[in-house]
Amino acid sequence: MEKIIIVGGGIAGLTTGVYALKAGFEAEIYEKNPVPGGECMGWNRKGYHIDNCIHWLTGTDPKSELWEAWNTIGALDEHTEYADIDRFYSSRAEGREVSLWCDLKKTEDELIKESPEDEAEIRKFIQHVEYAKNCSVPVSKPLDMMGLGDYLKLGKSMADMPKVMKEYGKISCAELGKRFRSPVLQKLMCDYLPPQYTAYSLIVSYATVAFGNGDIPLKGSLAMSLRIAEHFKKMGGVLHTNCPVKKILIEGKKALGIELEDGTVEKSDFVISSVDTDFLFGKLVDRNYMPKPLAKAYENRNGYPVTSGFQVAYAIDSDFSGKGTVFFDCEPLTLGTNRITRMSVKSYAYDKSFAPEGKTVLQANLVQGDVDYEYWKSLGEEEYRQKKEELAEALTERIVKEFPELEGKIELLDCWTPLTYNRYCNAYHGSYMGFMTTVGNKQLQYKGVVKGIKNLFIAGQWIMNPGGLPVALVSGKFAVQRLLYSQGKSMEI
Ligand SMILES: Cc1cc2nc3c(=O)[nH]c(=O)nc-3n(C[C@H](O)[C@H](O)[C@H](O)COP(=O)(O)OP(=O)(O)OC[C@H]3O[C@@H](n4cnc5c(N)ncnc54)[C@H](O)[C@@H]3O)c2cc1C
After folding, report:
1. Contact, 191 vs 327, CB < 8 A?
2. pLDDT for 7-39, tens place per residue?
3. Of 87, 206, 359, 422, which residue is most buried, by most CB within 10 angstroms?
4. 20 Cα: distance to centroid of ligand 1 (angstroms)
5. How far is it, in rounded angstroms, from Cα 35 to Cα 12?
């Protein structure tokens, strides 16, 4: 049996493993960390669980094609239980609060009541959220491998998307905000995604949640990663943890296998990398192999920015339920050259398994970009530790000011920065996703093949904007399909 070595055991690597086995290959995953999952992760502190990924999982509707794929890899099944959440998020400003509720009609009524002069714009927004309800990444095969029939099917399932793209495809979330007169509505439109993000991304994300295709599986992100890993192992796959790969061994135009950090060499017929592409091209293989459009995107930090976060997790000595994610203005904070005036908190009261009875985990987030990553990186070890502590303390003060009921009930569990994601996953600038989808910049989408190395393929969220869990999932399947195609075999898996 031919053997595939998969580098990286995040969602893309695990998915690759399952589909490789389904296609009849031997599959071995090499993951640098002690546990698989990559960015789809969670960890325990002082009797609490800090869930650090899934805010919404696209593909939880069993009628969707994505659900089929999640089900195939062992992430979701008919018995999966989901969090009982009522909103996407809420925004506060100038003493007012509005929400994007899961119930679209409730949102429409609330927003119109809050700002009758914005009624026409609100109704248009809601109508387009409805148009976007069937928008999805391709699942059956990569776009560039689709035939006419596949395109017609895809076009039919997303018949209303052109209307969304026409209205919101060429403006940013910041510009969308400016269409509204009410200050709190303006903030609502550019709170969740960074202001440079295209407005249609917000519409599609909200539609996913509002139409029941973006729920949160109970027990959290790590549990989902572990379910997939177990499924892979039960199918006969081999998962090596604590095994950082040092390089992919190349001879002529062929990958021979991998060399681990400890010097061990493992041979295989094919290699599929699922690690961050900045790490793949530069550390695992020579940077010159990087496809030109991708190299240009990495060089263009303004056109293709990435997003990360400074995050703090707290134990709350109350149930603090019914809050979800709330954005609010805060007393200004300075981080390097960045002046921060807005932040968010998220209550995890929806999952009882994360905290002892009667208590809750709360997480605060400050959005961080490329510049912030450079700032954190510039600090010495002691300075970095001190700055983290100072910032966490400053956030605690601001949270208690915004939610006075938390006075005396809030205890710090952990805090981490964009550098944490870089250290843990080799994530470029600590990015949560792939490159941001900004206005005026071409969406990146490249074939997960490496020119000059015929048996090396690429999975992972960086192969398609904007990244995220659904892209990680389909990228794993697509990498195996490209491999099958290169061998002249059927791509049906
Ligand atoms: C805080 C946060 C919130 C998020 N929220 C959501 C959300 O609500 N919805 C959503 O869809 N997405 C969300 N995401 C994004 C999502 O987590 C990622 O898109 C997805 O997990 C990426 O998967 P991946 O397998 O492509 O990459 P990764 O998860 O980065 O996996 C790469 C793997 O390769 C391993 N690796 C790296 N270098 C080596 C090496 N040299 N040798 C061996 N192994 C190596 C890493 O340890 C890692 O396990 C969130 C991410 C974060 C951080």
Report:
1. yes
2. 999 999 999 999 999 999 999 999 999 999 999
3. 206
4. 20
5. 15
User: Residue 194 above 90 pLDDT?
Assistant: no
CATH class of 3-40+56-79+219-302+437-486: alpha beta
Question: Does the model's pTM come out above 0.85?
Answer: yes
Q: Name every protein residue with a CB atom under 6 angstroms from any ligand 1 atom.
A: 7-13, 30-33, 38-40, 52-56, 244-245, 274-276, 279, 421, 425-427, 432-433, 460-461, 467-470, 472
**Centroid of chain to Cα 60:** 15
Q: Which of 53, 66, 137, 368 to mutate to test the pocket of ligand 1 (most atoms within 8 A of CB)?
A: 53
- The best mutation among 245, 469, 474, 477 to test binding of ligand 1, ranked by most ligand atoms within 8 Å of the C-beta, falls on 469
Residue nearest to ligand 1 atom 13, measured at CA: 468
- Report the nearest-CA residue for atom 19 of ligand 1: 468
